[in-house]
Write a structure and sequence with these properties.
The chain is α/β, with parallel strands linked by helices and 380 residues long. The chain has helices spanning 26-35, 41-52, 66-75, 147-164, 188-199, 219-228, 242-248, 257-265, 290-299, 325-337, 368-377; strands at residues 19-20, 76-77, 82-88, 94-99, 105-112, 117-120, 124-125, 143-144, 175-178, 211-215, 232-236, 276-282, 305-311. It folds into 2 domains: 19-77, DNA polymerase, domain 1 (Orthogonal Bundle), CATH 1.10.150; 82-352, Alpha-Beta Barrel (TIM Barrel). Strands 3-4-5-6-9-10-11-12-13 form a 9-stranded mixed beta sheet, with helices on one face. It has a two-stranded parallel sheet with strand order 1-2. Strands 7-8 form a two-stranded antiparallel sheet.
């Protein structure tokens, strides 16, 4: 949506849609305030109210004059996704099923740990990649999320955790991982716009060193991600040869391992203090042999990296089983002996289907006939 499209003009009629501030950058705020004849310093004040303090009521923005607050309320809103369902795992993991303005749904997960508190954020409704171990991959891609829908997940989770109070021992969000529903690099422009807001020091102020973007290997956009965002990179690897990866991660047919590994070697800022993370889900008798471990070490040789070994998290109808503990430990030992950290990720939130690879919403892409029918019955 172009900032020159006239959307920031005063409403022509009482029924005109309000402008949602969530997801707008500073230029967007400036254009709104300019239409209201406000000086430039108001941008910073409004920015902090929305993104730093998380305030959603213009009336409480006390350093803005009452006429400005009224004008903003007449033209704008601060709207977050609605909570359709909230679940809490026995291990403290929380999952929100969020309903968007068009009725589609996404999932967002909060994972509290001893030294960090991580929010797993979605970038798409559904996913186009169809990775065979992933529950989200069984849901067709519906659409990309907007910057506001991505930022809105962070604001909503932060507000929910604050509302719960710290008597539950919950910390604020310290880390963000773009590892929820969807492939972030297939929605790069919107993801980048959202993360720039999240990283802004006067807003949510989450450092790029505490943000990780996960990709299945969209090679052409990996360099751009490093150049423009500088966030940490996680690569969903899961296999050490093309024939197997073609089956597990079909995107490999488009960007095979040689291209993917070359892009990892060239990723801007990759060094020992900012290692690339290779995600490797452990599938029984599929990719968990000692030979696979040795091949993995050779494949990533020379890349500053760590390998997250992820015990497969089952979901209804899944075609795989989790590797045995002995197989996982033997695999990890080979990788560690080669000098690569290889933590085994403890499954979190399995009882509420919030663990890695288990996210899925009920949203689906409508057929052309269904879209036409919806348009015909939609209110004017």
């Amino acid at each position: 949506m172009s900032l020159n499209s006239g959307i920031f003009a005063p409403p022509a009629a009482s029924g005109e849609a309000l402008i949602n501030l969530v997801g707008l950058n500073r230029d967007g705020f400036a254009e709104i305030l300019t239409t209201l004849d406000q000086p430039p310093f108001r941008v910073q004040q409004l920015w902090q109210w929305v993104y730093h303090w998380g305030v959603d009521d213009f009336a409480t923005m006390t350093n803005l004059g009452k006429p400005l607050r009224a004008a903003l309320a007449a033209r704008c809103e601060i709207r977050l996704p609605a909570v359709s369902r909230h679940e809490v795992s026995a291990d403290g993991t929380q999952k929100w099923l969020l309903r968007l303005a068009d009725g589609h749904e996404i999932e967002t997960v909060f994972i509290p740990e001893a030294t960090r508190a991580t929010l797993c954020v979605s970038s798409q409704v559904g996913c186009t990649l169809a990775c065979r171990f992933c529950h989200t991959g069984t849901q067709r891609l519906v659409r990309n999320l907007s910057p506001g829908e991505i930022v809105g997940q962070v604001l909503l989770a932060r507000a929910a955790l604050m509302a719960q109070g710290h008597e539950r021992g919950l910390r604020g969000i310290t880390n963000i991982v773009m590892m929820g529903m969807g492939e972030p690099l297939y929605n790069f422009d919107n993801v980048a716009a959202a993360l720039k807001i999240v990283m802004d020091g006067d807003g949510m102020a989450i450092s790029k060193r505490r943000i990780t973007l996960s990709t299945a290997g969209v090679v052409p956009l990996m360099q751009r991600c490093g150049d423009e965002l500088g966030v940490k990179l996680a690569v969903s690897l899961h296999a050490v040869n093309d024939p197997l990866r073609d089956q597990i991660v079909p995107l490999n047919k488009k960007y095979p391992l040689a291209e993917l590994i070359a892009a990892c070697r060239a990723y801007p800022g990759a060094k020992n203090s900012r290692r690339i993370t290779f995600e490797y889900v452990m599938l029984r008798d599929v990719n968990d042999s000692r030979a696979d471990a040795k091949a993995l070490v050779q494949l990533i040789k020379g890349i500053p990296a760590k390998i997250n070994l992820i015990p497969f998290n089952p979901w209804p109808g899944a075609p795989y089983e989790r590797s045995s503990d002995d197989a996982i430990e033997a695999f990890a030992a080979i990788v560690r002996d080669a000098g690569y950290p290889s933590p085994v990720r403890s499954p979190r939130g399995e009882d509420i289907l919030a663990a890695c690879g288990q996210l899925k919403s009920a949203s689906r892409r409508l057929s052309a006939v269904e879209r036409l029918a919806a348009d015909l019955v939609a209110p004017a």
